[in-house]
């Protein structure tokens, strides 16, 4: 890890220069933060599981034609990705009222929404990721109206597909956050799904019991955080090298 040039360190991931031009190595940490860094902790094995879960979801999305930055997984905690210019927006898609939406509109968590809702937030820790409108986005030049159309249509396709995928393993996809990047190829520019999709960035509820299987267990001190992430991986059929034993074993510490 130390031999490579570090490009960026985020709260849950580190980006290193990749082996070929135009690539980066995305390293998944066990560090967890919430409420814009005010709450910090470690979820043992989270990095290993999120690397696997994000790989799995990006590959499935790639198969249905959603362009992503993912190239291949390198090892337990690292994946090779294409270097993209990140669009400074967090795109949140919601199917069920929860979290900040439930709070803002006084809805009880779990209220189904009349249709899925897409929201835009400006990526800025200093400003607490404020919610923004399409007007702000185009006026400040963070994205064009064409970019917004493309992100909206990709976000809805991703939501439809992931809702079905999770439903198949007994999980309700309540909401999630995604990020997009610009991939340049000569004069061409393509918007691709970037960052990660994992229980850190999704709300996932057990269909039968309603139990939370995501980062809300950490945010709200519900306990059983590691177990919840492991259960998501298990249901998706993703097991670390060595099989089911390793889900609890030392491999997650690496
Ligand atoms: O907190 P809020 O209800 O707005 O979060 C909506 C969804 O976006 C949740 O699934 C949450 O995990 C995700 N999110 C995220 N990173 C943020 C803010 C929200 O992954 N900075």
Automatic annotation (TrEMBL):
Catalytic activity: 5-amino-1-(5-phospho-D-ribosyl)imidazole-4-carboxylate + L-aspartate + ATP = (2S)-2-[5-amino-1-(5-phospho-beta-D-ribosyl)imidazole-4-carboxamido]succinate + ADP + phosphate + 2 H(+)
Pathway assignment: Purine metabolism; IMP biosynthesis via de novo pathway; 5-amino-1-(5-phospho-D-ribosyl)imidazole-4-carboxamide from 5-amino-1-(5-phospho-D-ribosyl)imidazole-4-carboxylate: step 1/2
EC number, UniProt record: 6.3.2.6
Pfam families: SAICAR_synt (PF01259)
Gene Ontology MF: a single term: ATP binding
Gene3D superfamilies: ATP-grasp fold, B domain, Phosphorylase Kinase, domain 1
Start and end residues of each SAICAR synthetase/ADE2 N-terminal domain: 6-235
Key words, A-Z: ATP-binding, Ligase, Nucleotide-binding, Purine biosynthesis
Class in the EC hierarchy, top level: ligase
GO biological process: 'de novo' IMP biosynthetic process; cobalamin biosynthetic process
Gene Ontology cellular-component annotations: cytosol
SUPFAM superfamilies: SAICAR synthase-like
NCBIfam families associated with the record: purC (TIGR00081)
UniProt cross-references to HAMAP family, sorted A to Z: SAICAR_synth
Similarity comment: Belongs to the SAICAR synthetase family.
PANTHER family: MULTIFUNCTIONAL PROTEIN ADE2, SI:DKEY-6E2.2
Name of this chain's protein: Phosphoribosylaminoimidazole-succinocarboxamide synthase
Classification lineage: Bacteria, Pseudomonadati, Pseudomonadota, Alphaproteobacteria, Rhodospirillales
